[in-house]
Amino acid sequence: MKTRIAAVGIAHPFEVGYDQAGSLLSTTVRTLLEQGVECFDTGIVMEDLDTVKKAAEALKTADFDALLLCIATWSEDHHLLDLLSYVDKPIILRAYPAFDTGSLCMAHQVGAVFTDIGKSYDFIYGEPDDRECALKAKALAAPYSLAEAMSHVRLGTIGGRVKGMTEIAYDEFAIKEKTGARIVNIDEKEMLEKVSGMSDEEAEKLFIEKKKLIPPCSISSTSEGLRESVKFYGALKSLCQEYDLQALAVKCYTTFMGKVCLGYSLLAEEGIMGSCEGDVTSGIAMTMLYELSGRPVNNTDLLYLDNEKNTILFSHCGSSGFSIAGGEIELAPVRLAETGVCCKFVMAPGKVTALNLCGHGEKFRMAVMTGEAVPCGMEFPGNPVVVRFDADVEDINQWIIRNGIGHHWMICYGDFRQELKRFAEIKGIVYNEI
Q: What is the CATH number of domain 154-433?
């Protein structure tokens, strides 16, 4: 996902700083570009109705998710009302330090006007070349870019959900309304037909083609199990192409346990997220984190609290993307069933965000926590990650129980609390954070 911003200026010809308005706009845009933000510069400073219309025409040709309003001086606020009548996008007010331009005054004035007309907005104050201001703009715009990206997501659910796991029953209407994603229901028969339609020779050829996605590793799975897993990968990949899917949720436990894991790991490296046990909402959560971080996401259960070290162990069977591995990789049979191919490795250390989505209707809810993934061993056969939190782990334990959060946590690298909280506000999702 790219964070896409458009920038336009506003100034009054009578005010101090009017002659610097164009420079403020271009410097602000340049600083955004230097921080990796995709920014469209209109090159227009609005000062009357004609320039407002020119800005509107330029913005109509641009592909962006949030509009950065660069306030060079005090100006007449009705110009912004006119602009909104042509282009109504999320607004970030950008004011600059100066005692004589009225930039900050104008931002406060506009904030009052927008509040009265029910127009939401965000605000940044600082020099045009301030890197932190640029990063803040990126973080403020990201939830809108995420909402746009999620509106195009199609998640294929294959075989329904796991029996006995009522918690993960999903609400298609709430998912569409609250996240923008659409659920595509696929009979598992379609997957199995594609699996049986691939010969052993074709599977071996496909594995050779995809081997470049797999780092050097050891293999303890049988040749038969490896071939079968490659066939499942081929089937899932084919369904993703056929139905234009960006994510999957297969009812793996227990029938396909270990058989789709290798496919999930390969697909993750190709930008398609796969959630375990038919958990559709977790598949949506994985996709959101992938869009924000640009890296594969670890699908986990919360397994064990270490009160002494203030850490929590998360893991699942082993279906995460190889590029988040923090050590040796083993292609091994799945635990319990001892079949198929799981991609076993520990997750690399670093700052992480853990996300849970669950619930129905107006109870559709999001839970977010962040911490530091610390070095660990193969504490649980799969993709274990041990996370040290700032909050007390027993408080986290009670928080999960009190808010009915559930047991599946999707984990990615980076701190995306601000972006997820704002996304929840925009989409009307109940938000929980600790």
A: 3.20.14
The burial of 138, by beta-carbon neighbours within 10 Å (0-12 exposed, 13-18 middle, 19 or more buried), is given as buried
CB 187 within 8 A of CB 277: no
Q: How far apart are CA 326 and CA 379, in angstroms?
A: 14
Summarize pLDDT for 377-386 with one digit per residue, the tens.
999 999 999 9
Domain boundaries, the chain: 4-150, 154-433
The angle formed by the CA atoms of residues 129, 134 and 137, to the nearest 5 degrees, is 145
Q: Looking at the whole model, is its pTM more than 0.85?
A: yes
**Are 426 and 349 within 8 A, CB to CB?**
no
Structure tokens at 55: 């800005």
Nearest to 25 by CA among 55, 48, 49, 65: 55
> 4-150 maps to which CATH number?
3.40.50.10940
Write the pLDDT tens digit of every residue in 198-229. 999 999 999 999 999 999 999 999 999 999 99
φ/ψ bin of 42: left (φ > 0), alpha (ψ from -120 to 50), beta (otherwise)? alpha
